[in-house]
Design brief:
α5 runs parallel beside α7. 70% of the residues lie in helices and 0% in strands. The protein is elongated, with a radius of gyration of 17 Å. The chain is mostly helical. The N and C termini lie far apart (54 Å).
């Protein structure tokens, strides 16, 4: 693999990996695990649907279903090795980051109409950032793997935002 961004990406990774104890970074990384993030989103999907926002709930569920459909083919196509496992492949883009971003931002977009302020969005940003940071510091992913996932999933979340913000029923 080659490219103008890979050398700085590798240098940044070398400077950051294992600068925080593995016990901490492992827990942060785990925030992007499917068994952790997806149930949180499913609770918000059920909540929004019961509150009458079925379109927003469906959009959030569809966005999460599209995460593996987008990440898995890219992982196979690029075959990028991991920072600590150069013999392995499939690290680009980060599925854990994509899962965390879509799940936690999806939750925020679904519950925000029923809350005051921007705290759901701030909490989603914090959880996604902690996941991404844990993945990089633990050495599971290169920084560009994480960035690619965020960029790739932003259009999905823009669609969720569009439907989650709409009121239930016909527009006037």
């Amino acid at each position: 693999m080659s490219g103008p961004l890979l050398v700085p990406d590798a240098g940044l990774s070398r400077a950051l990996v294992r600068t925080v104890p593995d016990a901490v970074t492992q827990r942060l990384s785990d925030l992007g695990n499917v068994p952790v993030a997806v149930p949180v989103l499913l609770l918000a999907v059920v909540y929004a649907a019961r509150r009458g926002n079925r379109r927003g709930a469906a959009a959030a569920a569809l966005a999460m279903a599209l995460v593996p459909a987008l990440t898995v083919p890219l992982k196979e196509w690029t075959g990028r090795p991991g920072p600590l496992e150069p013999w392995a492949s499939g690290y680009y883009p980060s599925g854990h980051t994509a899962t965390a971003y879509v799940a936690y931002a999806g939750v925020a977009l679904l519950v925000r109409p029923y809350t005051r302020g921007r705290w759901p969005l701030a909490l989603a940003a914090a959880l996604t950032s902690l996941t991404a940071t844990g993945l990089i510091l633990r050495g599971y992913h290169w920084p560009l793997d994480v960035l690619a996932s965020l960029l790739m999933c932003t259009p999905l979340l823009l669609g969720v935002r569009r439907y989650a913000a709409r009121p239930a029923g016909p527009s006037v």
